[in-house]
Amino acid sequence: MLGRLAQTNPGVLEPLGRRSLADGDTFEALIHQTCGILSLACGKPVLTRSHRISFRFPRFFPSVPIEAVLAKPVFHPNVDPRNGFVCLWTRTSAGDTVMEAARRLQQIIAWKLVNFEAAHVMQPEAVEWAHRTSFPAGLALDFTPLVEVEYFRREKSFTAQRDAPFRRRLTPLAG
Asked: 171: Cβ–Cβ under 8 A, 6 or more apart, which residues?
């Protein structure tokens, strides 16, 4: 599926490889054309547009959700600054696909999705900075959205109908 997604999005998603371990499979990739804040220098954002990522499919996927990790953590409330773990999901569903995980990851990197609930905040200083920056109006980082593969649209439609009453999503921010 990640390969199909990369073929549909040349120049944006570049698969690098796969590792299989006893506790699950990990897919490495580069995501380009996605602006993110690496750090703050004198209060100003230091930006990057390419990110090395890992999507981990735990052994018991889809009962256990897909995980995402950034090799170089970005400055964002929902990214662990020590290990790059990204809190993608508020709630998950067995129907969550790598397409949805990749799109959410892009939106988190670019500050289009943020979860300010305490249980999901791993960088409190990013929350404080966001509030000082007139968030969200002051944060309009650009990215080239991944184009959905037809297969994912059909799967998503079926899954959304089945799981609609049980799902709660992060809300995209205007900006």
From this structure: 113
Total number of residues shown for the chain: 175
Give mean pLDDT, residues 1-9. 93
Q: Which residue has the tokens 């959410």?
A: 104
Phi, psi of 44 (to 5 degrees): -110, 140
Provide the residue ranges of all domains of the chain, joining segments of one domain with +. Answer: 2-161
Helices 150-163 & 98-109 angle (0-180, nearest 10): 90
Query: What tokens appear for 82 in the block?
Result: 């020590």
CA atoms of 101 and 99, how far apart (whole Å): 5
Beta bridge partners of 40: 45
- DSSP characters for 5-50? HHHHSTTTEEEEEEEEETTEEEEEEEE-SB-EEEEEETTEEEEES-
Name the class of domain 2-161: alpha beta
User: Can you give the pTM of this predicted structure?
Assistant: 0.84
Backbone angles phi, psi at 68, to 5 degrees: -125, 140
